[in-house]
Design brief:
about 220 residues; mainly beta; RNA Polymerase Alpha Subunit, Chain A, domain 2; Gyrase A, domain 2; 2 domains; 3-stranded antiparallel β-sheet; elongated
Length: about 220
């Protein structure tokens, strides 16, 4: 199987992988997190029917979709015993509130940078301000457990004080994305403060070697 596509090539079973996602958060239900494990492989290709302007087309013919699979990918030797699934099932795709819904098809295509920059194998670099998470008061026992469970990136930890007492601590402040989940709800903004350290930046490079560095901005001399 050569999952590559060349100019003017049609998307077929040898160069395209199709996933389907259909998730709904019903009204009256709590918010839900949609993760990559909700993507379902479509071995027979796209199920979305193309809109056609030819009203005289034969209604008895098979509807035209966005792929041209000559056979099911389940019959290809590479996939017979290894069905295609996301490598990381816990990647967050979206968060849906009551009444919201996502329905889509995702077409994965392998290409080269000459065709489009999105296929160019270069490093991506980005930076963000160093986050600072401050506990404005001692958060203990059940509240400490609640705070730890609220954070999706596991910033907080629990310290055992002895005699059955527990206290929340900020164990991994650099992993904080400032998503504000920890301060949602009654009185949590009075207990936790989220800030940015203005003179410090986290710079991350994604390439063959993953690197993450903290850069301190030098203050200009007056």
């Amino acid at each position: 199987l050569s999952l590559s596509i060349v100019e003017n090539d049609q998307p077929n079973e040898k160069n395209t992988i199709v996933f389907k996602l259909h998730v709904q958060c019903k009204r009256g239900s709590p918010r839900i997190t949609v993760k990559s494990d909700a993507l379902k492989w479509l071995p027979n290709g796209s199920e979305l029917v193309k809109e056609t302007r030819n009203a005289a087309s034969d209604s008895s013919s098979k509807p035209e979709t966005y792929t041209y699979f000559g056979c099911s990918q389940e019959t290809i030797p590479e996939f017979v015993k290894n069905p295609i699934i996301p490598k990381y099932p816990d990647i967050i795709i979206a968060k849906l509130g009551p009444g919201q819904e996502i329905e889509l098809e995702a077409h994965a295509v392998k290409g080269i940078g000459k065709t489009h920059a999105k296929w160019s194998p270069v490093a991506t670099a980005w930076y963000r301000m160093l986050p600072e998470v401050v506990l404005l008061e001692d958060i203990e026992d059940d509240l400490a457990e609640e705070l730890k469970s609220k954070c999706p990136v596991n910033v907080f930890d629990i310290e055992d004080l002895g005699k059955g007492r527990r206290r929340a601590t900020v164990a991994r402040p650099r992993t904080c994305t400032l998503c504000r989940e920890c301060i949602r709800g009654d009185d949590w903004e009075k207990r936790v403060a989220l800030r940015r350290v203005k003179d410090n930046f986290i710079r991350k490079e994604t390439s063959l070697r993953k690197e993450e560095r903290i850069w301190r901005r030098r203050k200009k001399k007056s």
